Amino acid sequence: MSATDDQPIPQAPRCTGPRRLGLSGKLLLLTIPLVMIALLMIYVPSIANFWTNRLNDRLAAANTAALVLDAAPLGMVPDSLARQILTSVGARAVAIKMGQQRRMLASADLPPAIDRDIDMRTLTVWSAIVESFETMLERGNQTIRVVGPAPGGAQFIEVVVDEKPLRQAMYRFSRNLLLVSLGIAMLAAGLVYLALHYLFVRPMRRLTANLVGFHENPESAARIIVPSQRGDEIGVAERELSDMQRDLVSMLSQKSRLAALGLAVSKINHDLRNLLASSQLLSDQLASVPDPRVQRFAPKLMRSLERAIDFCQSTLSYGRAQEAEPDRRMIQVEPVVTEVRESAGLAADASITWISAIERSLSIDADPDQLFRVLLNLVRNAAQALESAKGDAATLQIRITGRREGSVAIIEVSDTGPGVPAKAREHLFEAFQTSGRLGGSGLGLAIAAELVRAHGGDIHLVEGTIGATFRISIPDRPVELQSIRNERARA
């Protein structure tokens, strides 16, 4: 814990300004311009097609009139009949070209000049769009000469029409098209908006509301979101959020339990340290008793009291649960194992068979006190696992083996109990996760793993063995060759 750990962590300021446009409003504002763009894309080719069809209709009517006018005897048509034909066609003049001859079939009130020429034979899509909008943007009543293919052997036919009636017809068509398209587009936009709202906006609101509620009380399991059965990305987000919230609730519960436990342990250890100090004074006086049995057990009792006082002091140091750095040195493993057996009460226990298979003179580069704690936790767990097992001393066994593989010392603690449940293996070395015994704290394996890792080693459960087997691997510290050469030189 650093010097600033007890200071509150400043939280990021939350936005308290006016609420901005929500996701639904943004979706609506996005839908409206998209609908307008769709209407524009429909309108532009439609008005160009209407303009082209109207001019082709004039050419078709002019072709029919040309057949009537050309069929007249000697090409003589009364003016009244010619005007009626031109009025029905909606044109001012009709002409046709055959070979090198250009013939005016009928005319009425021709202007002195033609304002625009449109050749339907070479008209492209883009030019039709441009010409149609030019027609709509013009003012007044201009005259247009439209040229198109002619029937029979004629090269082309020409018809002169007024632009104003065509423009008015285009205005009416535009108004009707826009009204119908707008109605259809608004209906489609409404359906799209509702579909997106129910498919995406409402689930996102649900996720947002759950996040806000969970932020207010992250320790409450009731605030965990219940994922839906959706198989898309939103369903995946809901399930992942639910799993994350469950893990966070479990972690916060564990942290709260650790804090409460730390406070309780600190209070207890404060008084326990004083009691142990008094016991240590009594043990010093006990060491002076000349009884051989007292002389045999007094040093072990004093050593146990010293360890207990050190543990209490380390816990009381600013309330920290951090272990001290290991004081490593080369020690013999067998004496530590013997002391572990006596401290666990297995030396006089005839119901459990103790088997020690330590290599002769096996040494390990470790802190003797921390190695003692590691082995004691593992042996006690093994003994507790065997308490509920049925059998005699031949079947209830605790076995400790030790060997060296190069620069790595390996110690295994195994038992013939029921083994570790599959559910507990995932969080085997985490605090408060593996204790299934009434009154157990779930800290033994967590403490053992922390101490082994402090030595740069590893502890894990060996698979495929009877009962449970824990393997501890502690490598020797690297040696500086220069320091060894200097020591040899001084020697």
Automatic annotation (TrEMBL):
Keywords: ATP-binding, Kinase, Membrane, Nucleotide-binding, Transferase, Transmembrane, Transmembrane helix. It catalyses: ATP + protein L-histidine = ADP + protein N-phospho-L-histidine. It is an enzyme of class 2 (transferase). The chain crosses the membrane at residues 27-51, 177-200. The lineage of its organism: Bacteria, Pseudomonadati, Pseudomonadota, Alphaproteobacteria, Hyphomicrobiales. CDD domains: HATPase. It comes from Bradyrhizobium algeriense. This is histidine kinase. The keyword Kinase applies. Pfam families: HATPase_c. The keyword Zinc-finger does not apply. Its EC number is 2.7.13.3. Residues 267-478 form the Histidine kinase domain. GO terms for molecular function: kinase activity.
